[in-house]
Backbone:
């Protein structure tokens, strides 16, 4: 009978602390370490390199959620909606996604549906100007649903390939604002069947465990088909996505790594796991 | 809740006249989890737990409390002490007193600049001049000018000046000339690992000679708050913190991490998106929130 080798408890404790430092949260950290301890026991080797590799693989496995079959726009424009709490990076990410689509030869329209925050429309207009992309906007204070309605009409009339809706930041605890998001979503769906085909929850990598509450509430009010983890060019690791992906089964699609239109990467679970373990 | 979890820990406590090491350690396990779930930085949690342990072990069990309640009270008192300990009013003696707002992208600096200006104007009756010194973000100047206009606040947009340091120098000159009491400078959000931008903010501080340098942090910030704030503190004389977006349900452990590691008090909190949604920091309220 082969003696069961167990991983050095000190090494496991160090890993647990690294995971907590990466914002995965105490429950997820101890769960991950327990899974690693068991796997290492099975493998019969307590080599530190192996322990780290097992952890990386476990994290990567948990993050590899199959993306739901993308709602295909039935011949009309594809509609993408950006949602999330204040300051997470929605407007900048909308510009990045618009740039990508534009570079790939698709015709894009931007909808300035943040009619509340000071200079929100101006901010999106600067980006649109830089990218040579039209913006549908109303006056500040207008009903965001009206902006979305007009943007959908324009997208259809101009046979645009892609319509990206930028919405106002809102804390997930504000019921009336979450209701407004449900309404915006309904209006888009009424104008363009199947819209919004993609709802991206934009999450700041600096967020702690409140990210889970954000994901739950935004999923309830607007549906979420994918996550964008922004500001990953900083030192925060965005570990809260482990709890989010586990509970809501929604994939992380993109990672924001800077403030220019090109600073957007496709999510790589392996790279993410590597960064958080090291 | 934490109280319920601690009640369970102390259900076993029978006939002991004082809080035993065993029971305190069991209680501290629960408290550690509660603090980590509140996003308090891991090292700050460890140091905090050690301090609480020292105060709790051997303490007489008071007849007015259950042992669980007693431990919670020790934790709350200690939290409130650390959060409120270094509280000081803003240093506004010099004319114009200069307040510099710094922090990571999207934390709430521009909004907080307008909020602080409105607060100083209405509560302390100061003449305040707002200075938009973010030359990076699209429409950053427009954002601050719009907030100023909508709230009857004065702002100075130095004509044709596109360098942040030059803008600040021109604004301080303008503030002196027109007898303003306070100048509030809004800067661009920046990463502590962006050396060029950290150099820029250090140069802005050198030019402005600020009386207050406030680190603006989002209440939902996680473990990284210690890394970023420490890096800012290495380049700037931070004097305090503004914690924003506390109107959400984030537990706000960042407040404890900042008070402990930066050693400067949270001076104000943002409690909403509107410019009037701003108030002085209350350590006891922040402590209850962190404990959940
Ligand atoms: N370093 C870095 N900064 C980013 C990234 N994404 C966005 N930002 C910055 O974060 C700040 C906020 O970005 P916005 O796009 O205005 O965020 P928002 O979610 O639209 O904000 P609200 O509309 O006010 O809720 C800006 O300074 C952006 O330049 C990123 O991936 N990396
Ligand atoms: N709910 C709520 N929202 C806030 C609060 N403070 C700021 N905000 C919002 O947070 C978002 C970001 O605020 P800004 O003032 O643009 O942040 P910033 O730090 O200047 O951003 P950058 O200049 O890009 O670094 C905006 O949508 C604000 O309206 C607050 O206390 N509560
Ligand atoms: Mg925006
Ligand atoms: Mg700003």
Residues:
């Amino acid at each position: 009978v082969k003696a069961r080798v167990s991983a050095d408890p000190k090494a496991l404790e160090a890993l647990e602390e690294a995971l907590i430092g990466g914002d995965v949260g105490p429950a997820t950290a101890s769960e991950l370490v327990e899974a690693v301890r068991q796997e290492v026991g099975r493998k019969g080797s307590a080599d530190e390199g192996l322990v780290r590799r097992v952890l990386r693989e476990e994290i990567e496995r948990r993050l590899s959620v199959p993306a739901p079959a993308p709602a295909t726009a039935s011949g009309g424009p594809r509609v993408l909606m950006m949602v999330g709490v204040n300051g997470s990076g929605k407007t900048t990410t909308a510009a990045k996604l618009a740039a990508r689509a534009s570079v790939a030869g698709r015709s894009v329209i931007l909808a300035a549906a943040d009619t509340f925050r000071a200079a929100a429309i101006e901010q999106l207009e600067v980006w649109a100007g830089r990218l040579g992309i039209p913006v549908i906007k109303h006056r500040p204070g207008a009903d965001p649903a009206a902006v979305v309605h007009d943007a959908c009409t324009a997208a259809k009339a101009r046979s645009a390939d892609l319509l990206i809706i930028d919405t106002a930041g809102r804390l997930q605890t504000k019921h009336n604002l979450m209701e407004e998001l449900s309404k915006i979503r309904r209006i888009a769906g009424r104008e363009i069947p199947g819209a919004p085909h993609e709802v991206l929850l934009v999450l700041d990598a600096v967020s702690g465990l409140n990210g889970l509450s954000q994901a739950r509430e935004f999923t309830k009010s607007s549906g979420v088909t994918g996550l964008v983890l922004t500001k990953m060019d900083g030192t925060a690791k965005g570990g809260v996505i482990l709890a989010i992906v586990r509970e809501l089964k929604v994939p992380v699609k993109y990672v924001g790594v800077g403030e220019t239109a090109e600073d957007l990467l496709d999510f790589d679970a392996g790279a993410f796991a590597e960064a958080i373990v090291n | 809740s934490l109280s319920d979890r601690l009640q369970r820990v102390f259900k076993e406590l029978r006939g002991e006249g004082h809080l035993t090491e065993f029971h305190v350690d069991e209680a501290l396990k629960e408290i550690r989890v509660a603090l980590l779930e509140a996003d308090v930085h891991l090292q700050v949690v460890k140091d905090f737990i050690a301090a609480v342990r020292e105060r709790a072990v051997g303490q007489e069990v008071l007849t007015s409390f259950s042992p669980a309640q007693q431990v919670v009270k020790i934790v709350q008192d200690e939290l409130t002490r650390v959060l409120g300990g270094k509280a000081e009013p803003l240093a506004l003696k010099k004319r114009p007193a200069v307040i510099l707002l710094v922090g990571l992208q999207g934390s709430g600096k521009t909004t907080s600049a307008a909020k602080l200006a409105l607060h100083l104007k209405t509560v302390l009756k100061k003449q305040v001049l707002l200075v938009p010194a973010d030359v990076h973000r699209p429409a950053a100047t427009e954002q601050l000018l719009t907030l100023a206009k909508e709230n009857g606040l004065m702002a100075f947009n130095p004509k044709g000046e596109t360098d942040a340091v030059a803008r600040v120098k021109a604004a301080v000159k303008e503030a002196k000339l027109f007898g303003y009491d306070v100048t509030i400078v809004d800067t661009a959000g920046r990463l502590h690992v962006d050396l060029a931008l950290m150099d820029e903010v250090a140069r802005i501080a050198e030019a402005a000679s600020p009386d207050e340098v406030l680190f603006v942090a989002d209440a939902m910030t996680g473990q990284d708050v210690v890394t970023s704030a420490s890096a800012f503190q290495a380049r700037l004389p931070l004097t305090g913190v503004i914690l924003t977006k506390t109107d959400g349900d984030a537990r706000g452990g960042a407040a404890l991490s900042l008070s402990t590691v930066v050693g400067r008090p949270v001076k104000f909190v943002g409690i909403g998106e509107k410019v009037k949604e701003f108030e002085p920091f209350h350590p006891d309220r922040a402590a209850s929130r962190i404990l959940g």
About this structure: Chain A touches chain B through 43 residues (CB under 8 Å). The mean pLDDT of chain A is 94.
